[in-house]
Amino acid sequence: MKQLGQWKRWRREVGHGGSVPRGGKRAWDEPRRRVGVYYPAPLHWILGTLREWRYRARLALCAPPVACAQFMEMQRTHRERLQMADEYARGYLAGWRECFHACREAVQEDLWGDDAVWDLGELAPDAKNPQRKN
Prior knowledge:
Order of helices and strands: HEEEHH
Oligomer: single chain
Number of strands: 3
Strand content: 5-15%
Helix content: 55-70%
Low-confidence stretches: none
Strand order of the largest sheet: 1-3-2
Shape: rod-shaped
Radius of gyration: 43 Å
Structural class: alpha+beta
Largest sheet: 3 strands, antiparallel
């Protein structure tokens, strides 16, 4: 804890429009707080680099759960798409079968129905029944 205080005594935080301390170089910015953090010349590079390494290490250690969550999300989305495709196909096929059966029944009625038009006796030219006038 004593060492942390040792580095803090060299640290200067300057807001926008503030005056930069003499001999201070910007180590990093903190945009949320609208502050630039300044250290003396050799320390600004070392501490900025250490901060960046810590940030990247934290990202690397936290990345697998994020990747796993993304993978699970992709699987869930794919599963939902497959389910929607199956439902659509089932409905489409059911509608097609219904239409096919209705058309087949209509054709069978026309071909094998009990219509007077298809009576061969009326179609013969020497039929005993006279032709009807319109």
